[in-house]
Design brief:
CATH architecture: 3-Layer(aba) Sandwich
Order of helices and strands: HHEHEEHEHEE
Shape: globular
Strand order of the largest sheet: 3-1-4-5
Largest sheet: 4 strands, parallel
Number of helices: 5
Number of domains: 1
Distance between the termini: 69 Å
Amino acid sequence: MLVPRLAVAAIAALMLLSTPACSRNDGPTLSAPDAYGQAQAGRLTLIDVRTPDDWRKTGVAKGALRINMANVGGEAGFIQQVETALGGNRNAPIGLLGLAGNRAANAQEVLREAGFTRVYNIKEGMLGGSAGPGWIARKLPVEACPRC
């Protein structure tokens, strides 16, 4: 009885080890300082995908476009706003900024599926998390947004 159980356990272990992990395909990322440097050099468009309430609370990264991921027009409205902001160029480099990277990761996936080719997640976001301290803690420039 012990031998068949060991055989089943060995086969199960072999199957698990040979199966690729089932995780979402994360896209490319940038640190907040790298994103800021590239944006300042004109090589990247920063887009803050948070809500107006978030923008009012923390401010917005200097030079970032404010395009709410929770667009009234849904994902299609969000995609249209990004495309318009980039002059229709779906190959333009974009750095997405959220609160702590999760919303930006979702926006990144939506834009990549819509055919945008150079979409980066600034994974540490404005407030930081496991990916880094965040835009604000790094003392990168922030613009107030009292009328957002």
